C-alpha cells in the first residue's frame, strides 16, 4: 500500500512546486527525484508552456514509481501523441503504443487482458488522451472499459478543445469560449451554453473505484492522485485540466496561473471520488472572480468588447454552482467529507 | 477425430486448439455461434490461460485485439458485414502496425438495404487494408485454414482474415476432421513477437511517419504480403504432411486440363460449380474451375498457370464495385491468362440469393456460345427492375427503392400518399 502523503502547505510562496526543498525527502515529488524515470523525456515538440506535456510528465513518472517501472502506456491521437513521436524520434522512455484517436481505452483493455492471460499482475496499464479523444470520439470505448472494470488507469488531459487539429470545439469546450468552429461572431459569440459533458461525473456514474480531477497548478496533488489511483485495481479515471497557451490565447508563462485560477474561481472543481461518491475536495483558498480567469485568455476576448456582462454573469453562475455542489468554500467539519486542503 | 458439427462450432474448436490468449468479439449474425462457443470454452477452462472479453462494439473488439497482440498475446476475433465496416479504421491499423491477429469473417452482405445473408461485399470492402484474406471452400477447409492462419500471421507479423460464407458454411452441419491438440501444438509454435510492449525493454509503437518514410513503410508491408505468396503454399504443404489433408494453398484448380472454359470463384459456391463441371465433363464438354483460396495477396502467377490454355474465363463473384464492375474478375484479368474481353464477370449470389446448378450450367453454355458479355448479373429479375425504373421516370417522389420492390414482389398496392395534414 502506498502511503497517502500529508497535504503540503506553502502558502507563503504562493506556489506548491518550490516547497519541495523544504520537505522531508519522502514527501518530495517524484519529479524532484533525480532517479525519476523521465517517462516523457525532454526534446519533444510541445509548445512552450504546454500544460499537457507538464501533466503527462508528472502523471507517468508517478505511475512508473508506483508500479516499480512496469507500466505500459496507450496513447490516443492528439497533441501529446504527435509532439512526442515525430518519426524517427520518440520522447517515451516507457513501453508505449499509439493506435487510433478513438480507441485508447479499448487498446488498453487488450493490453490488460494480455497481461492477465500471462499472469503478469505486476505490469500496469495507463491509457491517456486529450479531451476530444476522451469525451467525444473515445467516449464509447471509455464507457465500455469503465463498465467492464478493466484494470486500466485512464488519464484525460483536458485542454478544452481539439488542439492538435487547430483548436476546434470539443464536448469539453466551455460555454462562450472561442474556437475555430465556435467563432466569436454573430449574436451569441463563442461556444453555446448548455452543451458539453462533465466526464468526471459520468465516470462516477459507472461506480468505478477511483475518479479524481486535478490541475497542473498543484503538481503534488496530481502526483498523489496518480499514486492513489495506482493503488486501486480495476478501472480508474483521472481528469487533469491542462491549459494550452496556443488554444486558449494565453501567455506561456501563465499556464500554472490559469490552472490555479480555474480552481480558485470554482470553474474547475478539484476532487476525488471512490465508488461513485465524492470523498475529498480541494477547497478554494483565495476565491477569485471568474472575470479574472477570462481576461487572461484571448479565447474569451470577445466578452470584453461591448457589453457582455450577462455572459460573464452566466459563467460566474456556473462557478457558483460548482462551489455549491462540491462545497468548495465550506469550512472543514467532522461531518463533511475528508478534505485535502491545499 | 471426425465429427458431425456445425461449421461455427468446428471453427471454434479449431481456434481453441490454437491456444488463443485473448479473444474479444462483438456479436453479429452469422458469426455469433463461433464466439459463443469460444466464450463457453474459456469459461469452462477448456481453453486455458485465455481471456474472453465482451465489448461494446466491433471497433472496440478490434482495438482490444490490437492491444493484446501488441502486448505479446495470441489474439483472435470474428465478425461479419456491418461489424467489419464498424471496425474498419482499426482493421487498417492492425495491419499497419503489423500485428498477427487472426479474424474469422462470416461473409455477409452490406446494408443498406440491411441483409443478413451471404455474399462477399464485406471482405471486398477491406481488401486493400493489408490483411491476408483466405477463403474457405467448405467447413473442413475453414477448420484447417484457421490453424494455418495463426502460423502464417505470426511468421509474417501480418493479420490474417479467414473468410467463410455466412450461414452456407457457418450454420451448416457437416462432417469435419478436427485435429487433436497434440497435432496442433506440433504444427503451431508458441507466438514469438517481432515487436512487443515490454516494460523491461520499452519501445514506442505507432509513431507518426511523414513523407520521408511513409512510402517505404507501406512498401515493406507490401513486400510482406508478397512473402505470403511463398509462405501460404509452404505452410499448406506442411499442413498436408502433418495432417494428411490438402487444405489451403493459393488456388485449387479442378479438372482444368484441356478446358476451353474455366470458371473462377471463391468460397462455398465452388462446391456447386464442381458438381456442374463433373456433369459437363461426363457429357464431354471441356470445362474446369479454379478456386481462389488466397485473395490477398493475389496470386497472379498461380491464377495464370491454373487458367492456362482456356479460351475464356468466367468469374463468378459474390460482390462488385458499383460503377465499376467485378472486383475478383478485374484481378483475374490482370493475371493475363486470357485477353481481358474474354474474362467474363458474373455477379451472383448477392444477399444470399441461391446460385443453382442450372444457372451455372446455363452460364457456361452461354459463355461457350459467345453470348456472355463482360459483366452480367446472374438471375436478375428484369421485370422488377423495369417496374421501378418506370416508377422513377413517372414521378419525382417515387419513394424508397427497397420498399417499392418488396411491395411489387408481394403484389401489394402502392402505399397511399399521406397528405401530412392533421
Ligand atoms: C477518426 C479520426 N478523426 C479525426 C482525427 C483528427 N484528429 C486528430 S487529433 C484530433 C484532436 C485531438 O483533440 P484532443 O483529443 O482534445 O487532444 P489535444 O490535441 O487537444 O491534446 C483530431 C480531431 C483523427 N486522427 N481520427
Ligand atoms: S497546441 Fe496546446 S496542447 Fe498542443 S502542444 Fe501546443 S500547448 Fe500543448
Ligand atoms: Mg484537447
What can you tell me about this protein's structure?
The complex is a heterodimer of chains A (342) and B (422). By secondary structure, chain A is an alpha/beta fold. Chain A has eleven helices and eight strands. Chain A has an eight-stranded mixed β-sheet with strand order 2-1-3-4-6-5-7-8, sandwiched between helices. In chain A, helix 1 (51-66) packs across helix 7 and helix 3 packs parallel to helix 5. With 422 residues, chain B is α/β, with parallel strands linked by helices. Chain B folds into two domains: 2-243, Thiamin diphosphate (ThDP)-binding fold, Pyr/PP domains (Rossmann fold); 251-377, Rossmann fold, CATH 3.40.50. In chain B, helix 1 packs parallel to helix 7 (139-156), helix 3 (58-70) runs parallel beside helix 5 and helix 7 crosses helix 9. The longest helix of chain B has 30 residues, at 214-243. Chain B is globular. The termini of chain B are far apart. Strand 2 (95-98) of chain A pairs parallel with strand 9 (204-205) of chain B. Residues 46-47, 50, 52, 79, 83, 159, 163, 244-247 of chain A line the site of iron/sulfur cluster (SF4).
SSE inventory with pairings:
The complex is a heterodimer of chains A (342) and B (422).
Chain A lengths: L50 H16 L4 E5 L3 H6 L10 E4 L5 H14 L6 E7 H6 L2 H10 L3 E7 L40 H7 L4 E6 L3 H13 L4 E6 L3 H4 L6 H11 L5 E4 L2 E5 L8 H6 L13 H18 L16
Parallel strand pairs in A: 1-2, 1-3, 3-4, 4-6, 5-6
Antiparallel strand pairs in A: 5-7, 7-8
Helix pairs in contact in A: 1-7, 3-5
Chain B lengths: L1 E5 H11 L4 E4 L6 H13 L6 E4 L3 H13 L4 E5 L1 H6 L1 H9 L5 E6 L13 H5 L6 E4 L3 H18 L3 E6 L7 E5 L3 H7 L16 E2 L8 H30 L7 E4 L6 E5 L3 H14 L4 E6 L1 E3 L3 H8 L4 E6 L2 E2 L3 E2 H9 L7 E5 L9 H12 L6 E3 L4 H13 L6 H10 L12
Parallel strand pairs in B: 2-3, 2-4, 4-5, 5-7, 6-7, 11-12, 11-14, 14-17, 17-18
Antiparallel strand pairs in B: 1-8, 6-13, 10-12, 15-16
Helix pairs in contact in B: 1-2, 1-7, 3-5, 7-9, 10-13, 11-12, 14-15
The complex binds thiamine diphosphate, iron/sulfur cluster and magnesium ion (MG).
The site of iron/sulfur cluster has 12 residues of chain A, from helix 2 and helix 8.
Amino acid at each position: 500500500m502506498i502511503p497517502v502523503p500529508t497535504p503540503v502547505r506553502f502558502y507563503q510562496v504562493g506556489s506548491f512546486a518550490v516547497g519541495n526543498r523544504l520537505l522531508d525527502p519522502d514527501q518530495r515529488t517524484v519529479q524532484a527525484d533525480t532517479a525519476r524515470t523521465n517517462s516523457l523525456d525532454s526534446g519533444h515538440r510541445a509548445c512552450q508552456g504546454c500544460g499537457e506535456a507538464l501533466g503527462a510528465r508528472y502523471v507517468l513518472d508517478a505511475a512508473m514509481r508506483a508500479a516499480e517501472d512496469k507500466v505500459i502506456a496507450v496513447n490516443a491521437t492528439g497533441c501529446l501523441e504527435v509532439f512526442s513521436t515525430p518519426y524517427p524520434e520518440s520522447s517515451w522512455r516507457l513501453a508505449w503504443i499509439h493506435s487510433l484517436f478513438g480507441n485508447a481505452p479499448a487498446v488498453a483493455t487488450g493490453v490488460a487482458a494480455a497481461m492477465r492471460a500471462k499472469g503478469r499482475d505486476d505490469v500496469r496499464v495507463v491509457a491517456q488522451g486529450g479531451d476530444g479523444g476522451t469525451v467525444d470520439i473515445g467516449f464509447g470505448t471509455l464507457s465500455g472499459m469503465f463498465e467492464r472494470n478493466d484494470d486500466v488507469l485512464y488519464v484525460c488531459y483536458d485542454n478544452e478543445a481539439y488542439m492538435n487539429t487547430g483548436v476546434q470545439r470539443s464536448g469539453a469546450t466551455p460555454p462562450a469560449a472561442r474556437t475555430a468552429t465556435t467563432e466569436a461572431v454573430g449574436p451569441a459569440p463563442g461556444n453555446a451554453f448548455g452543451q458539453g459533458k462533465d466526464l468526471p461525473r459520468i465516470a462516477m456514474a459507472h461506480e468505478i473505484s477511483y475518479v479524481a480531477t486535478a490541475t497542473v497548478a498543484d503538481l503534488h496533488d496530481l502526483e498523489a492522485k496518480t499514486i492513489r489511483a495506482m493503488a486501486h485495481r480495476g478501472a480508474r479515471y483521472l481528469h487533469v485540466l491542462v491549459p494550452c497557451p496556443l488554444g486558449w490565447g494565453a501567455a506561456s508563462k501563465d499556464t500554472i496561473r490559469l490552472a490555479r485560477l480555474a480552481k480558485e474561481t470554482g470553474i474547475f472543481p478539484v476532487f476525488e471520488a471512490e465508488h461513485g461518491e465524492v470523498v475529498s475536495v480541494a477547497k478554494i483558498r483565495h476565491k477569485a472572480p471568474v472575470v479574472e480567469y477570462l481576461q487572461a485568455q484571448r479565447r474569451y476576448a470577445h466578452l470584453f468588447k461591448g457589453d457582455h456582462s450577462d455572459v460573464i454573469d452566466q459563467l460566474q453562475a456556473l462557478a457558483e454552482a460548482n462551489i455549491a455542489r462540491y462545497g468548495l468554500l465550506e469550512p472543514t467539519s467532522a461531518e463533511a467529507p475528508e478534505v485535502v486542503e491545499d | 477425430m471426425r465429427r458431425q458439427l456445425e461449421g461455427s462450432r468446428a471453427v471454434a474448436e479449431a481456434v481453441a486448439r490454437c491456444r488463443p490468449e485473448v479473444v474479444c468479439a462483438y456479436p453479429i449474425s452469422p458469426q455469433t455461434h463461433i464466439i459463443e462457443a469460444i466464450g463457453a470454452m474459456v469459461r469452462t477452462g477448456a481453453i486455458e490461460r485465455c481471456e474472453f472479453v465482451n465489448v461494446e462494439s466491433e471497433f472496440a473488439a478490434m482495438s482490444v485485439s490490437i492491444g493484446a497482440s501488441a502486448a505479446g498475446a495470441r489474439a483472435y476475433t470474428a465478425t461479419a458485414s456491418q461489424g467489419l465496416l464498424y471496425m474498419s479504421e482499426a482493421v487498417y491499423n492492425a495491419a499497419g502496425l503489423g500485428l498477427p491477429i487472426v479474424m474469422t469473417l462470416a461473409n455477409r452482405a452490406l446494408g443498406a438495404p440491411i441483409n443478413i445473408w451471404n455474399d462477399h461485399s464485406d471482405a471486398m470492402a477491406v481488401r486493400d487494408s493489408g490483411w491476408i484474406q483466405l477463403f474457405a471452400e467448405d467447413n473442413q477447409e475453414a477448420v484447417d485454414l484457421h490453424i494455418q492462419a495463426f502460423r502464417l500471421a505470426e511468421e509474417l507479423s501480418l493479420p490474417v482474415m479467414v473468410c467463410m460464407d455466412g450461414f452456407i458454411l457457418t450454420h451448416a452441419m457437416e462432417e469435419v476432421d478436427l485435429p487433436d491438440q497434440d497435432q496442433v501444438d506440433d504444427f503451431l509454435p508458441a507466438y514469438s513477437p517481432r515487436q512487443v510492449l515490454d516494460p523491461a525493454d520499452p519501445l514506442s509503437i505507432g509513431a507518426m511517419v511523414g513523407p520521408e518514410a511513409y512510402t517505404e513503410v507501406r512498401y515493406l508491408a507490401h513486400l510482406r504480403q508478397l512473402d505470403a505468396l511463398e509462405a501460404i503454399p509452404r505452410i499448406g504443404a506442411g499442413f498436408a504432411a502433418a495432417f494428411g489433408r490438402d487444405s489451403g494453398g493459393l488456388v485449387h484448380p479442378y479438372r482444368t486440363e484441356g478446358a476451353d472454359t474455366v470458371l473462377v470463384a471463391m468460397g462455398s459456391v465452388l462446391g456447386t460449380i464442381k458438381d456442374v463441371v463433373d456433369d459437363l465433363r461426363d457429357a464431354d464438354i471441356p470445362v474446369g474451375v479454379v478456386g481462389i483460396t488466397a485473395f490477398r495477396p493475389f496470386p497472379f502467377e498461380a491464377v495464370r498457370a491454373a487458367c492456362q490454355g482456356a479460351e475464356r474465363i468466367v468469374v463468378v463473384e459474390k460482390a462488385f464495385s458499383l460503377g465499376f464492375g467485378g472486383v475478383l474478375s478485374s484481378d483475374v484479368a490482370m493475371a493475363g491468362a486470357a485477353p481481358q474481353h474474354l474474362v467474363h464477370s458474373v455477379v451472383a449470389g448477392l444477399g444470399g440469393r441461391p446460385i443453382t446448378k442450372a444457372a451455372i450450367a446455363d452460364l457456361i453454355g452461354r459463355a461457350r456460345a459467345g453470348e456472355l458479355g463482360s459483366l452480367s448479373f446472374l438471375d436478375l429479375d428484369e421485370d422488377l427492375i423495369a417496374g421501378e425504373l418506370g416508377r422513377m421516370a413517372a414521378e419525382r417522389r417515387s419513394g424508397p427503392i427497397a420498399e417499392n420492390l418488396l411491395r411489387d414482389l408481394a403484389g401489394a398496392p402502392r402505399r397511399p400518399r399521406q397528405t401530412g395534414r392533421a
